[in-house]
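Thread: sanity check for a docking pose with pyridoxal-5'-phosphate

Original post by kr_44:
Hi all, I'm comparing my docking run against an independent structure prediction. Below are the sequence and the ligand SMILES. Could someone generate the full complex and paste the structure tokens? I mainly care about where the ligand ends up relative to the chain.
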Amino acid sequence: MPYDTVRGTDPAVADALAGERERQNDTLAMIASENHVSEAVMEAQSSELTNNYAEGYPGSRYYGGCEYADEVEQLAIDRAKELWGAEHVNVQPHSGSQANMGVFLAVLDPGDKILSLDLTHGGHLSHGHPVNVAGKTYEVEQYEVNAETGYVDYDQLAAKAEAFDPDIIISGYSAYPREVEWERVQAAADSVDAYHLADIAHITGLVAAGEHSSPVGTADFVTGSTHKTIRSGRGGIIMCDEEHADDVDSAVFPGLQGGPILHNVAGKAVGFGEALTPEFEEYASQVVDNAAALGERLQERGLELVSEGTDTHLVLVDLRPSHPDTTGKDVEAALEEVGIVLNANTVPGESRSAFNPSGIRAGTPALTTRGFDEEACRTVADLIYEIVDAPHDESVEGFVDQKVDELTAEYPLYD
Ligand SMILES: *Cc1c(COP(=O)(O)O)cnc(C)c1O
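Reply from moderator J.T.:
Ran it for you. Here is the predicted complex with pyridoxal-5'-phosphate included:
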């Protein structure tokens, strides 16, 4: 029985933890930013390193007792360098958002200017949304995707760079199904002497495996989350050239954080090790093939995809053309009832609100981890379509619910 030790002292928390394990086993996780890490990553994350203080960096700490902390952090750094080919890596950011804050703190002053993609077009809160600390600290201008094609409007980006004269331009997105053209963003940054931050939070694993082109060596800074496609447990990472290494390191600590979350750094080390294997390359390639199969089947059934397809791990469905009276939230709620978990999402040219948008976003990283192939993903596409088409029909719900049970039994996750 999992969580027996916790259960001995705290049955309430043990029940919730066991319930979550069962929920993950019994449902299809299609939130594009989610994944399932290995038991090895989880074991490393629950190690005694949660007890250490290790302010500083390997070989140069403010506390004693860091012999093994140094080993673990150095392994994470070395493996990250091998995975992404960066000159310098900082594995201490507590999350992807804090990795971005670390870059801002390293090279921007309050009031400096950020040019980033609009949140409702696929950007991220930490790229300067007014509710986020970045939006409160810096002056922000935003570019968009072309509402017709769904692709980033690189010409508009270049024109906005010219007019706004930003200090940093951010590429890399949260809900973007297409390959990012790093060089075009870099050209815009070069033309106004701005830094370029490529935030690969979602696609860390795809970039590491060569399934998506890499911004490392092009952009000045590359940030990411470590719990999405790279499957290394919750956290963030910053990569840059040696030139910016000291600024980045001192921005993360002591600029932004105190002691690193070393047990999570251990999870990163183990996950990065797993990602250096040929199995991970196969995994990443299957993630992309699965997203393509999912998208094609949704299209065959008559749903419209933003940009008419995908190059990555996710698809974005615009419900308006096929089901004008159905919102993303309706579909999200109806699918959760039958054990398919994804999220409502805004679409380019959104005519509803960010809270009740017109689209859904669906990703294949977590399904692929549990072994789904293209055929299984086409089946899932059919199930999603049935619910979109009849969100509250009980017989459809019963049928889909049963199919989800069969799929989760066929592709087991945690013992
Ligand atoms: C997920 C994401 C992040 C970081 O999220 P955290 O939850 O802070 O790790 C940053 N940028 C983008 C584009 C993202 O999608």
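The mean pLDDT is 97. Hope that helps with the comparison, let us know if your pose agrees.
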